Amino acid sequence: MRIDKYLKVSRLIKRRTMAKEVTSQGRVKVNGQTAKAGTDVKVGDELEIQFGQKHLVLRIDRTEEAAKKEDAATFYTVLKEERVNNE
């Protein structure tokens, strides 16, 4: 599954176009490598996402084409979440 679609289906990012923008800015890494919107992800991959002041590291547990809102949280496990000060 493409990383931009995964971010949208898992509801980490609301819209797929926004997921494409975030990846094109180099703010998403898959297994330590900077990802592009078309990068394929699979179960067991580790994602690093930079959301402004928040740095999130998570592991992919499921990949499906669609999900209900209440099931979205089961797509990943948060490994690390930290605040980043850009001062």
TrEMBL record:
Tell me which UniProt keywords the record has, alphabetically.
Answer: Protein biosynthesis, RNA-binding, rRNA-binding, Stress response, tRNA-binding
Q: Would the keyword Protease be found if you checked this record's keyword annotation?
A: no
Q: Which PROSITE patterns match?
A: S4 (PS50889)
The record, for Gene3D superfamilies, names: RNA-binding S4 domain
Q: Which residues form the RNA-binding S4 domain?
A: 1-63
Kindly state a single biological-process term from the GO annotations of this entry.
rescue of stalled ribosome
Q: SMART domains of this UniProt entry?
A: S4
Query: Which family does this protein fall into?
Result: Belongs to the RqcP family.
Assembly and binders: Associates with stalled 50S ribosomal subunits. Binds to RqcH, 23S rRNA and the P-site tRNA. Does not require RqcH for association with 50S subunits.
**What is the official name of this protein in its record?**
RQC P-site tRNA stabilizing factor
| Native source organism of the sequence | Salipaludibacillus aurantiacus
Q: What is the lineage of its organism?
A: Bacteria, Bacillati, Bacillota, Bacilli, Bacillales
